[in-house]
Amino acid sequence: MRDRIKRIGKWVGLGLLVLVLGVGLYVGGVAYAYGRSVDHVYDVPLPDIERSTDPEVLARGEHLARSLGGCALSDCHSADLGGGQTADLGPIGSMTAPNITAGGRGAQYSDAELARLIQHGVKRDGRTVRFMPAHETAWLPDEDVRALVTYVRSVPSVSRPSGPMEIGLLGRILDRHDMIPIDIARRIDHAERSAPPAPAPTAAYGAYIGRMCTGCHGEHLSGGPIPGAPPDMAVPLNITPHAEGLGDWTYEDFETVMRTARRRDGRALDPMMPTEAVTNMDDTERRALWEYLRSVPPTPSGQR
Ligand code: HEC
Question: Is the beta carbon of 289 within 6 A of some atom in ligand 1?
């Protein structure tokens, strides 16, 4: 009897050892792959894009920075572009959008380098940006990128120091499993730029804008908890035409939610929803987005 217990104990011990070694190898392998990928230097030529002196281009750039481009939001680089608040996501990491004015990183960048960063998610040194969702906005056509560069260059210099940017082990693992986008440049096709239609209130244009919703509402827009997110984080809702989503919504319902950042029952939307960006969208953008959301397959909630 005692021998049997001893023997079982030995096998259990051996099993545990193999398990620990296996987990160790797995985590080591994933962390290595992540490290190699974020240290990769991309060979992407600088686009021929420079700031403009045309006030209309500047105005378009300001509009984009506050809406579709998402740069000038308090969760991102902040309204003055002087650096945003730190998103502390526990074991995933602590992430802060840096100061991109002339008093910060902006000073080191040429206009073309800034344009390349927006279009390809590649920094001045050729490495990927982390966490900045350039893969959702890389579709913006050259003239819009030029407008954004023009606007970023026009803002007053801010001297705030940039906050921390540290990616934890869980963040690296989730990134490799495509559950949270941190290593951005590997998600962008650098050889072929997309060719979006001109801005119009159509589903075809809305499909491009809709990319900025997928980061939270999921690839299929059906919502559900973000993988690895802390349990107290808000849950993105279903925005497909399914009954559990926007099934019985009219455009007027959608417009009201997008303009006022309040849900249909009058409660304010959780601040996790990028309310600044959506309230700053113009009529064409909002309508295009709606047409697109109506055109996707109705999907029950939580399929991400
Ligand atoms: C950073 C994450 C994030 C992004 C990006 C995001 N959302 Fe949301 N969204 C949320 C969260 C979280 C909620 C739930 C808010 C609440 O419960 O108050 C929500 C709720 C909504 C609602 C309300 C649904 C309802 O039933 O009341 C709509 C509509 C919506 N989002 C549309 C969009 C659209 C369109 C986009 C893209 C332009 C978008 N969201 C991008 C996180 C996000």
Answer: yes
Residue 113 Cβ < 6 Å to ligand 1: no
pLDDT tens digit sequence for 172-227 = 999 999 888 999 999 999 998 888 999 999 999 999 999 999 988 999 999 998 87
The verdict on the CB of residue 217 being under 6 Å from ligand 1 is yes
The whole domain housing 234 covers 203-295
Q: Tell me the H-state helices in the chain.
A: 2-39, 55-66, 111-120, 134-137, 142-154, 169-176, 203-209, 211-217, 251-260, 275-279, 283-295
Q: Is 269 in the pocket of ligand 1 (CB under 6 A)?
A: yes
Q: Is the CB of 272 under 6 A from ligand 1?
A: yes
Q: Pick from 285, 304, 170: which is nearest to 245 by CA?
A: 304
Q: Which residues of the chain have pLDDT under 50?
A: none
Structural domain contains residue 211: yes
Count other Cβ atoms within 10 Å, centred on residue 112. Answer: 15
Residues 59, 161 within the same domain: yes
Pocket test for ligand 1, best of 216, 248, 263, 290 (most atoms within 8 A of CB): 216
User: 65 and 179 share a domain?
Assistant: yes
- 274 belongs to a structural domain: yes
Residue whose CA lies nearest to ligand 1 atom number 21:
237
